[in-house]
TrEMBL record:
Organism of derivation: Aureobasidium pullulans
PROSITE patterns from the UniProt entry: MFS (PS50850), SUGAR_TRANSPORT_2 (PS00217)
GO molecular function, one term: carbohydrate:proton symporter activity
Gene3D superfamilies for this protein: MFS general substrate transporter like domains (1.20.1250.20)
Principal cellular location given in the protein's record: membrane
Localization: Membrane
GO CC annotations on file: membrane
Membrane-spanning intervals of the chain: 47-66, 108-127, 134-155, 175-193, 205-222, 327-346, 358-380, 386-410, 422-445, 457-474
Annotated protein name in UniProt: General substrate transporter
Xref: InterPro entries: MFS_dom, MFS_sugar_transport-like, MFS_Sugar_Transporters, MFS_trans_sf, Sugar_transporter_CS
Key words, A-Z: Membrane, Transmembrane, Transmembrane helix
PANTHER family cross-referenced by the UniProt entry: PLASTIDIC GLUCOSE TRANSPORTER 4
């Protein structure tokens, strides 16, 4: 059933289970378990839901890091320690370098063992604990970016591969749910310190060790994904993992699931050989290039609609906007993100990926345009300051849910055999855009340009272009199996008509 082979110097396990009449077509595309409703599947997979939530917990450290990075630049003690002598605000070029180097580290990240990710994050926090100069913080952000990048490339993919078809959106969104909670934790910690100990910036750094410790315990007990095991020919192990995660509930057949995985992978490899889409650059060949663009575009769009302004530099942004309590604003934005994330998580499998991506991003663009207009007036006045916060909250609400679904697109759209590689490249390209904006956004707000709130005009323009592209290229893949998605791409189904397509085989 399995045969070892070497392709382009890469060891693979060649699986022999495909349609004998048409090797590119899987023998079947769905199992009986895939026919359950969303609610039925959730009731039957309570243990799996617990595993997914536990696995995604480490994303809270990512969210904590990002808000900590943006919040500490306004902390009086941090400024006193890191700013140039005789000044009371950190220069925009330093803030730009810290944010940019963190995003640069994300593009370096590869899908490595979760233990390596954990070690890199430990190194990052250690350096932060002992940092006394701005360049120490720069190195810490490099390691943080590497760890976060590897985490982004690994965990959404892991969640997608352990998820039932009907619950992929919910489980993948668990990653962003914990990410948002991490941001909220950081906002609360920074807000309390701002009130009680405005010069204390070490305590929130030390608090990261709690999340580091819990993540280590979780990583030790996580099972390997069945899709990975099947791709390596470890069929018995895959069946055992499926049985352990799903139990022996009525109507579930772990062997049927393994057969579908084998059929899908074998068909993909047969098509790849026929179309000469092999080797390390197969991601950018033939139909895989289109699938890569689709997988990457939602996360790229989140950068083009100004995620950096509200996510990484929210406190810094509102400080420059003249708000008297920027930490409270960040706390409010974190709560808005949490509400948005909960609503997105429970609706993404029911309403679909496409509408919950395109329309919220369009709302973000309109909000940014409104922010730019507010920036043309004296927004330090109470009325306009409140309006500024309203549009910022609206942009944050709409962007949070849409950007979370970006992980679902990155994990679901690629072929199974190229899923890890495509996801890594997709997120790397997104982070390349993040590098640019992480460096330039502080300079727009606080640099020589002194755009301030008018920065909204810039991101409204770039965001509008990105949303139009989203409308034309993003397909609907909610509740679709990998085999069905493969079939639709092979048959060149109109991307905007994926939802109406009926698979030819079961």
């Amino acid at each position: 059933m399995a045969q070892t082979k070497v392709e382009d110097g890469i060891h693979v396990e060649r699986l022999e289970l495909a349609n004998t009449e048409d090797p590119q077509k899987p023998t079947f595309t769905r199992t009986h378990a895939d026919e359950l409703s969303i609610w039925q599947s959730l009731r039957q997979n309570k243990l799996l839901a617990l595993i997914a939530m536990a696995a995604a917990f480490s994303a809270s450290l990512e969210g904590y890091q990002i808000n900590l990075n943006g919040g500490l630049v306004s902390n009086k003690g941090f400024i006193r320690q890191m700013a140039s002598p005789g000044t009371k605000i950190i220069k925009g070029k330093y803030v730009s370098a810290w944010g940019g180097i963190q995003s640069a580290g994300q593009t370096i990240g590869q899908i490595i063992a979760l233990y390596v990710i954990w070690v890199v994050l430990v190194v990052s926090v250690l350096i932060e604990c002992f940092a006394t100069h701005w360049y120490h913080w720069l190195v810490a952000k490099l390691f943080a970016g590497m760890g976060v990048g590897m985490l982004q490339s690994t965990l959404p993919l892991y969640l997608a591969e352990i998820s039932p078809t009907q619950l992929k959106g919910l489980f993948i969104n668990a990653y962003t749910f914990w990410f948002v909670l991490g941001q909220l934790f950081a906002s609360v910690a920074l807000n309390r310190l701002h009130i009680s100990a405005p010069y204390d910036f070490r305590t929130p750094i030390y608090s990261q060790w709690a999340m580091i410790g819990v993540s280590a315990i979780i990583f030790v007990f996580l099972p390997e994904t069945p899709w990975y095991l099947v791709s390596k020919g470890k069929l018995d192990q895959a069946k055992k993992v499926l049985t352990k995660m799903h139990g022996r509930k009525q109507g579930y057949d772990s062997q049927e699931q393994v057969d579908l995985m084998m059929s899908t992978i074998a068909s993909e490899r047969a098509a790849a050989e026929q179309n000469s889409e092999l080797g390390p650059w197969a991601v950018f060949q033939g139909k895989n290039l289109l699938r890569f663009i689709i997988a990457a575009w939602p996360k790229i769009t989140q950068q083009l609609v100004g995620l950096t302004v509200f996510n990484t530099y929210a406190t810094y942004f509102f400080q420059k906007a003249g708000n008297k309590d920027p930490f409270l604003v960040t706390l409010i934005l974190s709560c808005v993100q949490l509400i948005s994330m909960i609503m997105t998580a429970v609706s993404t499998d029911k309403l679909g990926r496409r509408p919950l991506t395109v329309y919220p991003y369009a709302i973000t663009v309109l909000s940014l345009l409104s922010l730019g207009i507010v920036g043309c007036f004296d927004y330090s006045k109470p009325a306009l300051s409140s309006l500024l916060i309203f549009f910022a909250c609206l942009a944050t609400f709409s962007t949070t849910g849409a950007s979370a679904i970006g992980y679902a697109y990155a994990a679901e759209i690629p072929q199974q055999r190229l899923r890890a590689r495509t996801t890594a490249f997709a997120l790397a390209f997104s982070n390349m855009v993040a590098i640019m904006f992480s460096f330039t956004t502080p300079l727009m707000i606080n640099g020589d340009a002194q755009w301030g709130v008018k920065t909204g005009f810039f991101f409204a323009g770039t965001g509008a272009v990105a949303v139009v592209i989203c409308w034309f290229i993003l397909p609907e893949v909610a509740c679709r199996t990998p085999a069905e998605i493969d079939e639709m791409f092979e048959k060149k189904v109109n991307l905007r008509k994926f939802k109406q397509y009926s698979p030819s085989s079961y």
